[in-house]
# Entry
Amino acid sequence: MRKNLRIRKFLAAGVLLCAMLSAGETSIGGVALGDSFDAVLKKYPFLGKWGQQELTGLPYPLNVGQKRQVYLAQEMTSRIYFYFDAFQKVIAIGLFTANDYADNRVYETSAGLRPTDGLLELKVLYGLPLDITEYDFKDGFGDRVVRRLYYYPDMIVQTRKVNALPEQIDNVIVCQYQLEHVLQEKNYPLPRPGR
# Structure
């Protein structure tokens, strides 16, 4: 009887752990997806009055297959930025981690990822990514730059590696995107006959 109870507890803990790992990220800096403009304004006064935000297209990966316009709220001295839909709800939250003009606030995701964290902390908090995109180029100084996008449920982390320096997190964006659709577009960017 005790053995069955232990097995049930172990299975329940395993199912709970799997559910937590497969659940998507929902917030950065105390702002969650779906929060109202007024709720975000209380925490981040730089948003100003509604309607003063920049009208722009959807951020990647929400823009895959869509051309809808949204409102972008950002400030040069802040690392965090927000996308709102026409209903004044947060649809995406982004965080620049290497902004020279950044404020001195500490931002973190609901799981605890901070801008100063590295790939080890990212993988400890979220596990292995569902997919990775990599591309490289030479910058204006002739340095070889490798960019990677790590795809997680409802979160994408962009990194940068310059020459032999360690890979660093550059940008984190939280949004509810359709992973299968984005990965299909990423892997087959050109339309094929019969598709």
